[in-house]
Write a structure and sequence with these properties.
20% strand; 256 residues; alpha/beta; 31% helix; globular; 11 strands; single chain; 8-stranded parallel beta barrel
C-alpha cells in the first residue's frame, strides 16, 4: 500500500448506486486508488456484495440476504432507487468485483456478516493469483477481524471502529473504545491497522503513537475537501470517501 490513498466507499456512491459494478467503474474513472465493498453470504453460500443485511432499502424486497439464494438476489434491481439511468444494476458477486479489478487498483472488503463469511472469501481468493497486496479486509467485529487475519496472514486486515458500544449486537464491542484500547487490540491480533470514523479526529501526536505501533490509519467517511486535507495532516494513510473524484481534484494541494 502507498500513502495518500483514496478509497471509494461502496464505489463512487455519491454519483452511482452503491456496491454496484457501475459505482466501481465510476470510482476508477474518478481516479480512486481502491474501492471499499461490503459482503454478506447468500443462503447458498455465495459472497454477495451488498451493505445491508436485507434487500429492502436498495431493492424494495423485505428479506434478509442470508435467507435468499444467489439466483434470487441476482434478479433484484439495485440501481433504480438511485435514478432511472441506473435501472438494471444487479448485486455483484465477489468474483465479479475481483475479475473487474484494474491493474494497480485494490479492494477493501468489509465483512458485514460473521466469521462464517471468511472461508467463502478464502475459496474465492484461492482461485486467483496476484491479489495478496491488492485485497484488504476489515470488520467492526474484533472476532471477525481476527478470523480474517488467521485466514489471510499475507493480506492487510483492519479493525473498524466508530468508538461506540453495541452490547446488544453479538460480536461487536460491548464498551466504548479508546484509541489506546484499539491500538493494543490491533497489535495483539497482529492487524495491519485501524479504520476509524472521521469524528472525533485524532491529533497528530495520537496518530504518531499509532504509527509508532506499526499500524496504518484510514478515516471514514470523508467527503469534504477541507476536512480531507486536515485529516491527512494528522498522518492518515488513506481516506474512505463517497466522492473520490472531488477529493482527487483537491488532495494534491494539501500540505504534506
Amino acid at each position: 500500500m502507498t500513502h495518500r490513498l483514496l478509497i471509494a466507499h461502496r464505489g463512487a456512491s455519491f454519483d452511482a448506486p452503491e456496491n454496484t459494478l457501475a459505482a466501481f467503474r465510476l470510482a476508477w474513472e474518478q481516479n480512486a486508488n481502491a474501492i471499499e465493498i461490503d459482503v454478506h453470504l447468500s443462503r447458498d453460500g455465495r459472497v454477495a456484495v451488498i451493505h445491508d443485511g436485507d434487500t429492502k432499502r436498495i431493492a424494495g424486497r423485505e428479506a434478509a440476504v442470508a435467507d435468499q439464494s444467489w439466483s434470487e438476489l441476482r434478479k433484484l434491481d439495485v440501481g433504480d432507487w438511485k435514478g432511472p439511468e441506473w435501472t438494471g444494476e444487479r448485486i455483484p458477486s465477489f468474483e465479479e468485483v475481483l475479475d473487474a479489478l484494474p491493474d494497480g487498483k485494490s479492494v477493501l472488503v468489509e465483512i458485514k456478516s460473521g466469521p462464517e463469511t471468511v472461508p467463502a472469501l478464502k475459496k474465492v481468493l484461492s482461485a486467483r493469483v496476484g491479489l495478496t497486496d491488492r485485497v484488504w479486509l476489515q470488520s467492526f467485529r474484533p472476532g471477525v477481524a481476527l478470523a480474517a487475519r488467521e485466514a489471510f496472514p499475507d493480506h492487510a486486515v483492519f479493525q473498524l471502529s466508530d468508538y461506540k458500544a453495541r452490547p446488544d449486537r453479538p460480536g461487536f464491542f460491548g464498551q466504548p473504545q479508546t484509541i489506546e484500547f484499539l491500538i493494543d487490540l490491533a497489535r495483539e491480533n497482529q492487524l495491519t491497522g485501524l479504520a476509524l470514523r472521521r469524528t472525533p479526529p485524532l491529533d497528530s501526536q495520537t496518530a504518531l503513537a499509532l504509527k509508532s505501533a506499526g499500524l496504518r490509519l484510514f478515516y471514514w467517511t470523508v467527503d469534504d475537501p477541507d476536512e480531507a486535507c486536515a485529516l491527512m495532516e494528522t498522518g492518515a494513510d488513506g481516506l474512505i470517501t463517497n466522492r473520490p473524484g472531488l477529493l482527487r481534484q483537491t488532495l494534491h494541494s494539501c500540505s504534506s
